[in-house]
Amino acid sequence: MALLQKPSGEALAAVRGPAGSRAGGPRRSGARRRSRARVNAQVVLALVIIAAFLALALFAPLIAPYAPDAADAGQKYLPFGSSGHVFGTDEQGRDILSRLIWGGRTSMVVALIAVAASTLVGATLALVAGFSGDRVAGLIMRTIDVMFAFPVIIAALAFAIILGPGLTVVVLAIVFVATPYVTRVVFAEVKRHRGREYVEAAVSLGAGFWSILFREVLPNVAGQIVVYATGLVGAMIVFSSSISALGIGVQPPEADWGRMISEGAKVIISGNVTVALLPGLVVLVVALAFNWLGDGLNDVFDPHKRRSRS
Amino acid sequence: MRTNRWLGVGAALVAAAVVLSGCSNPAGAEDTQAAAGEPQYGGDLVVGLYLEPLALDPHRQGYWETYRVSNNIFEGLTREDTTDTTGPTEIQPALATDWSVSDDGTTWTFDLRDGVTFHDGSDWNAEALDKNVRRISDPTYEFYDESSAAKLKQWFGTLTSGTVVDDDTYQFAFSKPFLGFPRILAQSMATLTIGNPAVWEQYGNDGFADHPEGTGPYKFVSRTVGDRIELEKNEEYWGDEPYVDTITFRIIPNNQTRLASLLSGELDLISYVQPEDVETLEAQGFQVPEGTGSSLLYISYNFTNPAFEDVRVRQALIHGLDRQKLADELYNGYAEPQYSFQPPGNEAYDPEVRDFEYDPEKAIALLEEAGYGEGDLAFTIVVDVANQNTAEWLQSQYKEIGVDVEIVSLDRTSYIARAYGPEENDGLSLDEYGGTYAEWLSQGFAGLAGKGLDPADFPEITGAIDAAASTADPDARIDLWKSAEETLRNEAVVIPTVNLTRYYALGSNVEGFVWPATNWYDLSKVWLAD
Amino acid sequence: MGTLKHIGWRLVNILPVLLIVSVLTFLIGRLTPGDPIQGQYARTFSPEQIEGIRDAYGLNLPLWQQYVKWIGDLFVAGGGRSIVQEAPVFDILWPNFLNTLVLTAAGVLICAVVGIAIGTVAGAHHRRFADRFSMLFVQVGSNLSVYWFGLILIWIFALQLKWLPVSGMQSRGGGGFGDLLAHLILPGISAALISMLVLARFVRIGIVQEKQSDYYKTFASQGAGGLSLLGKHVGRNILPPVVNIIGLEIGTLITGVLFVESVFNWPGIGTQLLNAVNGKDYPLIQGGVVLIALCYLVVNLVTDVAVDALNPRLRRR
Amino acid sequence: MTLQVSDLVVEFGTGDDAVRVVDGISFSVAAGETFALVGESGSGKSITAASVLGLLPDSARVASGSIRLGGSELVGLSARELRRFRGSQVGMVFQNPLASLDPSFEVGNQLREIIGLHEPDLPRVSREALAVEWLGRVGIKDAPRVLGSYPHELSGGMRQRVMIAIASLSQPALLIADEPTTALDAVIQKQILDLLRNVIRTTGSSLFIITHDFGVVSYVADRVAVMRDGRLVEQGDREQVLAAPQDAYTRELIEAVPEIGTRFALERAGLPRRLGVRAPDWAVGSGSPVDSADRADQVGGAAPAVPVAGAASGVPRGEAASARPGEPLVVVERARKEFVVGGIGTGESRRSFLAVDDVSLEIRRGEVFGLIGESGSGKSTFARLAGGLLPLTSGTVTFDGQPLSALKGRGLRALRPRFQYVFQDATSSLNPRVSVGEQIVRPLVRFGKAPSVRAGRARAAEVLDLVQLPTGTFDRFPHELSGGQGQRIGIARALALEPDLLILDEPTSALDVSTQAAILNLLLDLREQLDLSYLFIGHNLAVIEFVCDRIGVLEAGRLVDVFDAHELFAPGRSPVTRALLGAILPIERSAVGAVDGELEGLTETTEPQPVAG
């Protein structure tokens, strides 16, 4: 799947902006302060969006006008703006608005869990590979190669067949897809830290292997990892729509954004565009919010931006 | 020996065709301005298939989409009348001109058509037929094909001998009466369609599919798996001259893409139109002929689930299903409800029969009787992802009679594996199949056995099917099948649901297309208007 | 010389990866329920009859025998025979594979041209409107479902505007190179979508960084203009990482092009693989996966070699 | 006037947020003169230089003031208009020669391109000829090879020569050199400065040189301006500023520079060996009335004058004599280290080189052992070998009787608290994402030196105090510290473990002179207080001589000379040592031009000696 964006190791540097420090640049320039304000606004907006969708999901039973599986096939494919069904209805005559509200429960939770898991696994593998000898690193990176080289759908189908379709499969498929990317991105980042003096210093101060990985290096790559991981959330919801088109994943009639996109895509040419468009937009908005949140969290991990004593 | 009763009809049709072709002017067709409705020769017909056809080997082939391609290349001894849109198709002579059966119903003698050649010019005769027969039944034959034999065993398992009587006459002998044989010979799968033995003698059994050669109106040109199959007109065809010069079959599994390709004019004809798209197509001037194939969607039970041992439960699930509403709502009215396991177009189909009519009260009562209060009966319905919408509809339908249904929708293979190797809590599964031959009932029943039904538990059904299959009395045959279907229906071992009444869509310039009451069509009669 | 040795070593390294991929694919196929025979015949044949057909296809042999036979077939028998299609696996896959390469090439081209263009605009206008706008575009683009996006493209460009064909590789009755190009545009864009956005981000960051580099100052201090600097110096210096990213993206495209192929009915290996999976056609699945994996690994290797070749530090040695 | 800067104000940002980094400075550079702008990091000197050509960072801008070049006003011109001046009228040489050429093109290509910028109509052949000519002028003899080389194939000095050629080839009226030699070794530095002097003499350009090094000022400048926090504190003729600085800050800076022989002069005077401490009559004609208060207490009574090079023959007394001989703490025998680098995918070809070649030496308990060499001589590698950070290829390292090179894992780790590192760059040796307190506490807890985090904090407070940092530093992050503070943290972190040996890998080379002085003084203090031994790596012989008891000289991985500090001028010194000595740029406080001959003569007349050690 080419669903993944790869912020380079250097992304961070670019985010930080041109450091004029050597030439005597001030600690905190006005430009940076302003862009900081913009970043903050972005993060707040992101948090508001995410919180709103989480709240919608959490209080779905109270908010949603209909049950997500309340079907009336006689009322199917009502268009956007129909009375009683503001967002229209789907193939089974279910209220799209209600399904979008309920769908957040599965989509957001699944994507978050899966992305968290792949981030955990990928980052650990990358850290270990980055600081191990050729043999271990080679083994890990070859394993990653196997995952990369293995067509995603085959893997996803295999999970589905072995486990039976359901949420677990979606989570595993996402982990399978995302882990190699996370590993590769973090590995590249970790490699940049391998020769750093602070690592050498840690060795000379008696730090052991794991201590170096998780206490010294991890804090330095954490921001990068967070940016990448949050960028994955939206892409992975979209990815779950691709696999649910194959019958893998959340089983009907449960509402799930990915499934809604794939079901909607079945009738785009037939002319029922909103059925596909609305869940697509929702995912897009949530994904953008996570992207922005990631940028903001990166700042949180970065003491340069966290503190402003002078 | 009695002369086949369809012979007369067939002869009349051939005569009509000759007259028709005499009227037309093939040579000058492209030059003269053809009036509307007057067939034109030439052009390339592009057909969009929704599935990749299987091997183009007459004895190994499967799936209707395969046959929609391969029946242009191969022919059988008999064929169905594909101009008939209403009733059960009639059986017409094809590579055999005449056939008769012995009184005990076990020995069939075929007179073979003269002057027919395979696409490479070699002769069609009893010798060629014999090689076809030996390929699927005679292990001593050099080109005995184990895999074909295994597939054809269903109908040819009781074949005791095939005999070349003379150059134009061939005799099949079965160990049991087999009155359905001529119609079986006109089918698509597990039957003896005729391929050119010279090909397997040259390329081997495995190589045949790469060089498919038969006697049909079109010759194989090329195939790119996953993309297209190209055919060209067989100039030496023994029957009516086909109209279009070439036929291109494109394989477009994605429903939306296939639809878009038709809408954009890249295709002339597509299979499997979604009910949702009928209006779109008709509004834009495309033809979506009404008709009915010989198939039905049916729901079957997981007989390994103890809940379904109780006939009342099975009946309740039929009573609880409003098939008219299903056809109207989910299929936008482009389907008709089905109440019999024999599909429309089947020679033993009776449109008047009814099983357990929609009656939710009764369903609830029956469940109550069987010990299931509201919400007590719960199971999963397993479907191919393509039928997911039906499953969702069923789910809400069954909720109304207090039955909790969970859906498991799977890719095709996984679906088959699960449906035919069900898990404990599985309840229902959904299939589509059917045929014009009365014997289809036995196939359908065998399929149910694959889902855990033990035939020994239903001796009346097996008995009735056996009786129908092995009768030697041609007049009693259809009635026997009907009564077998009734027995089966009363046992509520399967839930017939609907049959699609729109299936193909054509460009506005495609003429001469007929949707016969079977699962394929005859493209040699199709022509393209300007 | 050292480089050649390294290429050799890397080639050798591909083997274990392929071996693992092959074993995994084989096992996944065999250890999961469902098989090609059942898939085709379960509705009509009794279990005993199905067993008979399985025997005929050698599917009842011990697993290791089947595996060994298949590995042998890979080298001498065109990857074995497809059970569903009844033809040698590589005979089926090869034309599809070439088609996939054609689509991938188009995707890479579009990815490179558009991605670099967006990245350059954004990088050159760092922190200005053009940058913010391009980056929002990138974020939006990378969160679209390719499947969905493809259908929208079809709806707009093929059905409403009627500029471009919907599906496949050629028009009725075939067509020349131009016809192929017309068929390539929409799937190419869809395939390239995500990758081009990845690339755009990379180019943007690269440009921003190069503009801060000392050599940039050197040339600027000598009066070199922005464009020639950007074109010649910045371009040349971000070329290796850009090539690297493109290389990685080619790999991703090849393994992930399935959805695009499905939407545009591109007769590629992804479509074939999906078919094979649907029919559980073991030899076809196995052959396809191994081919894709091999391709991915080779592209990776070629990318590394290309990146090295672009590095002046290595040019001489 | 070639360059006339008046009331220049440069700001980062705009409006209320604006931060002034250059705050109303005025100066001028006359035709043909060399003007030096001196200041410590952050003083705004580089920004001043960059503002001349409009090469400021994106976020900075000239807020007010005027920059006139010849007769033209440059402030307010667009980038396009400025481009006319760039190169043709003002040439610029940057600090880092390693990065200031495009790594992806051959040198010839770049030279031709730049010639083309100035003379677009010149045919390629002539451009080539001009390039060759200019390479000749900057002292490159094999011009064709250099033209066909990529920058990475040239040494730093060569690259800086090429840069000077680039900056000068259009014979601009003004040549700006922004710390042109800071990244170079001492020996190369002197060559480059000579070259710059030479070039402007032939082109008639003025030279505007930015530096933090008074040695450089002394060597090249006609006039000097001293910059601090965006303002000029003092400007005037070189002799006047160096000999009689008017401003306390200027004086502080000058006095902070360690010079050859200072140490022995102080010893003879009975003064503590600390920088900033000087014999009253040291600076001839010094008009400074009062020493700064914080230093007054260190300055003892009167001290005899000490000639610069006079210590060469004299056997010093005092500290050197009192240095305890001590038993060996570290014994290195036949240490070799071979590196294999590169390979496919790494961007470099695979090759191996010998970084340390058969080095044997011992560091005695209580001594400061100095290791000096040019960049690439293997001195840092050696430090890592000696401290068990890198495995040896062959040879042995013994620490206090324990075979370090044979230990691994746990055993080695258990020994680590006893020898600690202080790295060159405090910023990079401190974990940027961990608070400095945490960085001190972690190893304490790890080694059980502190039973709890609380105890660790207490110990951290102690060592922070020891390195003269406030306790509040504990919660800071490295980027919030200045270079000197960072280095103090590095030292504190090492000292917290109560080591026997500190391995100091160029601990002051990234620091400003005043900070360097403070750190060196601190190290000298600590050694006395805590009974430490140092392995002190450096490239500045003056620093090494000031701090170390014994000195080893590395060249290309081999130890070529080992001697006691006071024997620096002894006849047995190797050519490498003598070259290093000759490259020192002393601060000439009196007459002009005396510097040239003195030390150079020494290096050139002395015979090469067999390798010591």
Query: Which descriptor suits the 3D outline of chain A?
Result: elongated
Return the CATH class of chain A: Mainly Alpha
Number of helices of chain D: 23
Radius of gyration of chain A: 22 Å
Number of strands of chain A: 0
Distance between the termini of chain A: 46 Å
Mean pLDDT of chain D: 81
Largest sheet of chain A: none
Beta-strand fraction estimate of chain A: under 5%
Per CATH, which architecture of chain A? Orthogonal Bundle
Point out poorly predicted stretches of chain D.
279-323, 591-613
Count of domains of chain A: 1
The greatest interface between two protein chains, and residues involved on each side, is: B-C, 58 and 60 residues
Quaternary structure type? heterotetramer
Number of helices of chain A: 12
Terminal-residue CA separation of chain D: 56 Å
Strand order of the largest sheet of chain D: 6-7-8-3-9-10
Q: Which features does this protein show?
A:
heterotetramer; A: 310 residues; MetI-like fold; 12 helices; 0% strand; disordered N terminus; B: 530 residues; alpha+beta; six-stranded mixed β-sheet; five-stranded antiparallel β-sheet; 16 helices; 22 strands; globular; transmembrane helix (chain C)
Summarize the entry for a quick read.
Chain B is built from 16 helices and 22 strands. Chain B is α+β, with helices and mostly antiparallel strands.
Q: Mind explaining what this structure looks like?
A:
The complex is a heterotetramer of chains A (310), B (530), C (317) and D (613). Chain A has 310 residues and is an all-alpha fold. Chain A is 70% helix and 0% strand. Chain A has a single domain, classed as Orthogonal Bundle (MetI-like fold), CATH 1.10.3720. Chain A has helices at residues 11-16, 30-58, 60-63, 96-130, 134-149, 152-163, 167-194, 197-204, 209-244, 257-265, 273-301, 303-306. Chain A is elongated and about 75 Å long. Chain B contains 16 helices and 22 strands. A six-stranded mixed β-sheet of chain B has the order 9-10-11-2-12-20, covered by helices on one side. Chain B has a five-stranded antiparallel β-sheet with strand order 1-5-6-8-7, with helices on one face. In chain B, strands 16-15-17-13-18 form a five-stranded mixed β-sheet. Helix content of chain D is 35%, strand content 23%. In chain D, helix 3 packs across helix 4 and helix 17 (436-446) runs parallel beside helix 19. The N and C termini of chain D lie far apart (56 Å). At the B-C interface, helix 4, strand 11, helix 7, helix 13 and helix 14 of B face helix 2, helix 3, helix 5, helix 7 and helix 11 of C.
